[in-house]
Amino acid sequence: QVQLVESGGGLVQAGGSLRLSCVVSGSISAINAMGWYRQAPGKQRELAAIITGGGRTNYADSVKGRFTISRDNAKNTLYLQMNSLKPEDTAVYYCNGNLLEWGAVRFRELWGQGTLVTVSS
User: Fold this and answer.
1) What would the mean pLDDT of 23-32 be, rounded to a whole number?
2) What is the rounded distance in angstroms from the CA atom of residue 107 to the CA atom of residue 63?
């Protein structure tokens, strides 16, 4: 069974850094776009950053210049380097991927379970 497993969340002071990782486990034929979404308490889930299969990136205005999304296709791993963190970055961060499982004919969207990032002021 294909799963997306995030790690790297935690508690950090404002101005600090964290690096999130998302490993795609299971039998995969191809991975298209992947992204990081976040959901703050009482708010809707929103896109933080996305990276296409070809490596093009796009960021929410709120994180542009502070966050960097990257992927290691050989390791089926997605990263989010978060610098200059602010209290308003506090949220559960979810990994999302558009994946083609081995033997399947269609890509499908999968979500990880989320990892909590808390930024203290």
Assistant:
1) 95
2) 28
